[in-house]
From TrEMBL:
UniProt-listed InterPro entries: Cyt_c-like_dom, Cyt_c-like_dom_sf, Cytochrome_c550/c551-like
Organism: Paraglaciecola mesophila
Protein's recorded name: Cytochrome c oxidase subunit 2
Residue span(s) of domain Cytochrome c: 76-162, 209-300
Keyword check for Oxidoreductase: yes
Segments crossing the lipid bilayer: 12-36
Signal peptide annotation: none
């Protein structure tokens, strides 16, 4: 008799719990579907939404970071690190005595106060966020734009920033002027034929995860803002031609015969082959262009050509 009562109570509890979850889900869906939740950047998220997103960020980063951290003192944060920070980071995050650019003050969520982040986050956390970025926060991923050493230089700098005075940072920033490299441009414009051959041979040794990397590369160079691409949820815009069967077309932009190498060269510098093209030079590195082309071959229809 007692066992029967427990079973009935358990069934009732699970039913009520399931019903409550369904109603909460329906409420959240309705708030979003009917436009009740305001996405305007003039005001912040509500407290529950902010806490939910913050918890999701912390847990996601903690679950993925690599605790193995190199010795930060070996990295050149005083010149190259400062130079890259000035070029890529200070506009949103500011620096000791340096205000962020006005546009960043209206971002929602606002960019983190860099001194607070440097104090609270471990080097492993900082590196993961720099490399991978954070969705829906304005924080980009730098994996495809900065080398591993350059990212660690930024981490080493961030850990030093809380100890720097306004004048100390200003002196370091002044000394770093003209240092650092724009690797994306140099890799393309100053490669010798031998370096290009080496890059090509190196790229053929990639792992089985290469297709996924090509998909990520297409997103990281924002190809999805203009092209329809299978496998990328945000790639639904017909500004440029769809890329799903790009490899089966006879010509690229009506100019180049469609071959694997021509596709790579076109992605790296479209205006070089067609100066009137509206597609700009995004300074795509050769290795990344190769990964993109490999992905385009992966998603193409085998028997369709035009």
């Amino acid at each position: 008799m007692t066992k029967t009562i427990h079973i009935k109570l358990n069934k009732k509890f699970y039913f009520i719990a399931a019903l409550a979850l369904f109603l909460i889900g329906a409420l959240v869906f309705s708030l979003v579907y009917f436009g009740v939740y305001n996405v305007s950047a003039l005001t912040g998220h509500t407290t529950p939404v902010y806490k939910f997103l913050e918890h999701a960020r912390v847990q996601a980063v903690d679950a993925r970071i690599d605790d193995e951290v190199p010795e930060l003192s070996t990295f050149n944060w005083q010149t190259s690190g400062i130079a890259n920070y000035k070029r890529h980071c200070v506009a949103c995050h500011g620096a000791p005595g340096v205000a962020p650019e006005p546009f960043s003050l209206g971002m929602m969520p606002p960019p983190s106060a860099i001194v607070r982040v440097a104090r609270q986050r471990s080097p492993a956390e900082l590196y993961w966020v720099i490399e991978n970025g954070i969705k829906m926060s304005g924080m980009p991923a730098w994996k495809y734009r900065l080398s591993e050493d350059e990212q660690w230089e930024l981490v080493a700098l961030l850990k030093k920033l809380p100890t720097l005075s306004k004048s100390e940072y200003a002196q370091l920033a002044e000394k770093s002027t003209g240092t650092g490299t724009n690797n994306a441009i140099k890799d393309i414009l100053s490669q010798t034929p031998e370096e290009q051959a080496l890059a090509k041979s190196t790229s053929t040794k990639q792992s089985a995860g290469e297709t996924l990397s090509g998909q990520v590369a297409l997103q990281q160079y924002n190809c999805s803002s203009c092209h329809v691409i299978d496998g990328i949820a945000s790639a639904t815009y017909h500004v440029g031609p769809p890329l799903n069967n790009m490899v089966n077309r006879r010509f690229i932009a009506g100019t180049l015969p469609t071959t694997r190498e021509n596709l790579i060269q076109w992605i790296m510098d479209p205006p070089h082959f067609k100066p009137q093209s509206l597609m700009p030079n995004l300074h795509v590195k050769r290795h990344h262009a190769e990964l993109m082309v490999n992905y385009l071959y992966q998603i193409a229809d085998d028997n369709e050509s035009y």
